[in-house]
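Run: sequence + copper (II) ion -> complex structure.
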Amino acid sequence: MLTRVLTMVAASLVSLLALATQPGHAAANGDRMQNIQLTILAGDRIVEPNVALAPNLPVRLTIINATREFHTFTIPALHISRLILPADGHSARTTTFTLTLDTWGPVAWRCIICPSGEHGRKRTMGGTFYVIIDRSTVT
Ligand SMILES: [Cu+2]
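>> structure
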C-alpha cells in the first residue's frame, strides 16, 4: 500500500515537472518564456495550484477565473500581487501577466480575498511555485 502511494506521489511529481518544462516560446527579447496556467473553478478551487519553475526566466501566468468573484494572485514574500477579475456572466475571464522569480526553492502564493470572508464563507486559496528547475533545461 505504501509503495503504491509513493509510486503515485512520484508519478504526480514527474507530471508536475513535465508540466513546468513544457516548451515555452521565445519572447520578443529572446528570453525563454515559461507558460503557466491556473484555473479557478466554483468553490474557489484551483486546477494545478503547484508548479515547478526555473528562476530568473520570465513566467507568463494565465489565470482563468470561472467564478463570479475577484481574487488575487499574491506572493507576499516577493511583494507581488495582481488582481484577478471575475467571470463575465457565464464566460470565464482570463488575466495574463508576466513575472520573474529571482529566488530558489518553494514560493507560496495565495489569494488575499478568499480568507477575508468577502466572498461569503472564508476559504483558503493558494499553492506553491517550486522554483527548482535548472534554467538551462528550459527550452
Ligand atoms: Cu480568492
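>> summary
Residues 2-137 form a domain with the Immunoglobulin-like fold (CATH 2.60.40.420). Residues 5-29 have pLDDT under 50 and may be disordered.
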